[in-house]
Specification:
58% of the residues lie in helices and 0% in strands. The chain is an all-alpha fold.
Amino acid sequence: MLTPMMAAYVLQPMGERKEPGWLAMYMHWAAWALRHRIKITLAAVGFTIASFVLVGYLPTGFIPPDDLSQTQVTVTLPPGSTFSQTFAAAEQAREIVGKNRM
């Protein structure tokens, strides 16, 4: 839907249109590529294979590992526990986690 709308604003009648300077070079390259289809196809296949082979030589992945330096602890107490019991269980969990820090 966007292409026809933009074409109505951008395209000009054929008689008034001036060709851009880069179009001659592009047409030359396109004509050469069409005359040498086998070479172009082999080059594309070669680049594709080479890119898959070279992935093994990357030192790291594309996404770095997550390290948020956080520890999450869940403390579950039976229903009806008092605030002091909950506080004592949380303190005990904090002490256990504190002993395992590096």
